[in-house]
Amino acid sequence: EVQLVESGGGLVQPGGSLTLSCAASGITLLNYDMHWVRQATGKGLEWVSAIGTAGDTYYPGSVKGRFTIYRENAKNSLYLQMNSLRAGDTAVYYCARGLRDSGGYHYQAFDMWGQGTMVTVSS
Amino acid sequence: DIQLTQSPSFLSASVGDRVTITCRASQGISSYLAWYQQKPGKAPKLLIFAPSTLQSGVPSRFSGSGSGTEFTLTISSLQPEDFATYYCQQLNSYPLTFGGGTEVEIK
Predict the structure, then answer these.
(1) Which of B105, B33, B98 lies closest to A43 in space, CA to CA?
(2) Which of B91, B96, B98 is opposite residue A44, by nearest beta carbon?
(3) What is the pLDDT of residues A72-122, one digit of tens each?
(4) Is B87 an interface residue toward A (CB < 8 Å)?
């Protein structure tokens, strides 16, 4: 079955760290741009990070310098290391695959999503 | 950063209605826009991208149009399974951004 499965969420104190994992099956992650997207309860979607097929990484200002996205190709897994966590980082975190069309063009849209993992930052 | 403004934020409609949702970008993004559908407790689902290409498996009652700064998502005949929240997203440049969402409710 083709799927993405996130894990690693939980309760963490402000200022703490957490690493999320996204295990892929049925697809080879290194062939796609991969992303993390989060959603606070009752709120909209927020893009959190991206890693390209060449290993280039991108972040919005809200997490830059605190979050690191990386891939472990041998495990076909994606990770998000989160440091200096704040209450505002509380959300469901989704890993998502970047769209690649039949011609191999990469769009920065998300055509496959995991089920999400909840991160709660609270004392 | 490119801001996306969706309107309306809430829409009440009946089965069979034609529904249009608008997404306006704070600067030109060519055709680099996508639309998603999200149901409660579920991950979003890609419907349309760039800005009128229907994702595989998405019913043809969904359509997208626009370019530059103004885009629309149209559902030609609303079905019971279409009641959900819809988001636009710009693919033009990093940081990628989403609109605030449009909740479509049953009238």
Answers:
(1) B98
(2) B98
(3) 999 999 999 999 999 999 999 999 999 998 888 999 999 999 999 999 999
(4) yes
